[in-house]
C-alpha cells in the first residue's frame, strides 16, 4: 500500500513523467508508484490524452518571412555586420 | 518543423542548444544571417506561446519581433547556465505579459475593439477530424485558466519543458510551478469532464 506522501508526490509529477523530463531517479520512483496505484494510472492516461489533444491542435499560419522583414527594418546599426558575412546571403535573408 | 518537438528529446535538446549557442555568438558580432536562422527556428514556438498567453494574434506577431529584437541587442546577456530555448521563451513570457498589460490599459482608455478577425486568421492544419470538437473544447477550457496556469500547461504538454525550465521561463520557484500545474489540472478536469470518454 503506497503511503499518502508518496502518492501525492507521484500524482503531482505525472505531467513531467508524461513529457519525459524527470531525472532518472525521480522517474524510477514515480514509475514504481504508478505501477501499484490505480488512481495514478488513470490520471496518467488522462495526461497522455491531454498531451495528444494539445499536440494536434491547430497551427497558426503567419508568414515568417514577412515578419522577419518587419523586424529587419527595425534592427539598429549598433552592431556592425560581421566581416566576412556573405553579402548575397544577407540580401537573401533580409 | 513541429515546434513542440524542439524541446522534447534530451539528445535533440542538447544538439539544438549547441547550434543555438553558436548562433548567439554570431549574433553577438552583429551577424544578421545568424539572427535570420534563429528567427526561423523560434518564430512558430514563440508565436504560439505568446498567442496562448494573450489570445491576440496581433500581439503574438508583435511579441515575436519584440523578443527577437531583445535577442539581437542583448545576446551577450544570455546566462550560460540555461538553455538558449529557455532564455528565449522566458523573454517571450515577459513580453507577452507586458503586451497584454499595455493592451488592457489601452482598451480601458479607448473603445472596445472586436478582434475576432484576428483570431479567425488562425486556421487548423490538415483535414477536419472527429477530434475537432474536443480540441475546440480544450481550447475553450484553456481560455478559462489564468495566464500563469495556462503558461505552465502549455510549456509542459506542448513544449515538453521540465519543471526546472518552466520555473526559469516564468521566473518563479519550482514548487510554485508544481502547484500551478496541480490547480490547472483540477480546473481542466472540472471544465472537461468528458476528457476520458472523448479522447482516444
Tell me what you see in this structure.
- The complex is a heterodimer of chains A (94) and B (200).
- Chain A has helices at residues 4-18, 24-36, 38-55, 64-74, 87-93.
- Chain A is an all-alpha fold and 94 residues long.
- Chain B has 10 helices and no strands.
- The longest helix of chain B is centred in the middle third of the chain and has 26 residues, at 84-109.
- In chain B, 40% of the residues are buried.
- Classes of the chains: A mainly alpha (94), B mainly alpha (200).
Structural class of chain B: mainly alpha
Average pLDDT of chain A works out at 81
- The portion of residues assigned to helices of chain B is over 70%
Sheet with the most strands, sense and barrel status of chain B: none
Measure the end-to-end span of chain A.
63 Å
Summarize the entry for a quick read.
Chain A has helices spanning 4-18, 24-36, 38-55, 64-74, 87-93. Chain A is an all-alpha fold and 94 residues long. In chain A, helix 1 (4-18) runs parallel beside helix 3 (38-55).
Keywords:
heterodimer; A: about 90 residues; mainly alpha; elongated; disordered C terminus; B: mainly alpha; disordered N terminus
What is the topology?
The complex is a heterodimer of chains A (94) and B (200).
Chain A: H1 4-18, H2 24-36, H3 38-55, H4 64-74, H5 87-93
Helix pairs in contact in A: 1-2, 1-3, 2-3
Chain B: H1 10-28, H2 32-54, H3 57-74, H4 84-109, H5 116-120, H6 132-143, H7 147-158, H8 163-170, H9 174-191, H10 195-198
Helix pairs in contact in B: 1-2, 2-3, 2-4, 2-7, 3-4, 4-8, 7-9, 8-9
Amino acid at each position: 500500500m503506497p503511503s499518502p506522501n508518496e502518492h501525492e508526490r507521484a500524482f503531482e509529477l505525472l505531467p513531467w513523467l508524461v513529457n519525459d523530463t524527470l531525472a532518472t531517479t525521480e522517474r524510477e520512483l514515480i514509475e514504481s508508484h504508478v505501477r501499484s496505484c490505480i488512481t495514478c494510472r488513470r490520471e496518467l492516461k488522462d495526461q497522455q490524452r491531454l498531451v495528444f489533444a494539445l499536440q494536434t491542435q491547430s497551427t497558426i499560419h503567419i508568414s515568417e518571412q514577412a515578419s522577419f522583414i518587419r523586424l529587419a527594418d527595425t534592427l539598429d546599426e549598433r552592431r556592425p555586420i560581421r566581416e566576412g558575412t556573405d553579402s548575397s546571403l544577407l540580401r537573401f535573408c533580409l | 518543423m513541429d515546434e513542440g518537438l524542439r524541446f522534447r528529446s534530451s539528445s535533440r535538446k542538447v544538439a539544438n542548444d549547441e547550434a543555438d549557442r553558436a548562433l548567439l555568438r554570431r549574433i553577438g558580432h552583429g551577424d544578421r544571417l545568424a539572427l535570420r536562422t534563429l528567427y526561423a527556428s523560434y518564430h512558430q514556438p514563440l508565436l504560439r506561446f505568446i498567442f496562448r498567453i494573450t489570445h491576440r494574434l496581433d500581439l503574438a506577431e508583435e511579441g515575436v519581433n519584440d523578443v527577437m529584437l531583445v535577442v539581437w541587442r542583448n545576446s551577450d546577456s544570455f546566462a550560460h547556465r540555461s538553455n538558449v530555448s529557455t532564455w528565449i521563451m522566458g523573454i517571450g513570457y515577459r513580453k507577452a505579459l507586458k503586451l497584454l498589460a499595455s493592451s488592457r490599459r489601452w482598451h480601458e482608455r479607448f473603445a472596445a475593439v472586436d478582434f475576432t478577425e484576428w483570431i479567425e486568421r488562425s486556421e487548423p492544419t490538415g483535414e477536419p477530424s472527429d477530434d475537432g470538437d474536443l480540441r475546440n473544447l480544450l481550447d475553450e477550457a484553456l481560455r478559462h485558466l489564468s495566464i500563469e496556469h495556462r503558461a505552465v500547461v502549455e510549456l509542459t504538454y506542448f513544449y515538453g519543458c521540465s519543471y526546472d525550465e518552466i520555473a526559469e521561463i516564468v521566473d518563479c520557484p519550482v514548487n510554485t510551478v508544481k502547484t500551478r500545474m496541480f490547480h490547472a489540472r483540477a480546473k481542466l478536469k472540472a471544465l472537461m469532464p468528458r476528457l476520458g470518454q472523448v479522447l482516444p
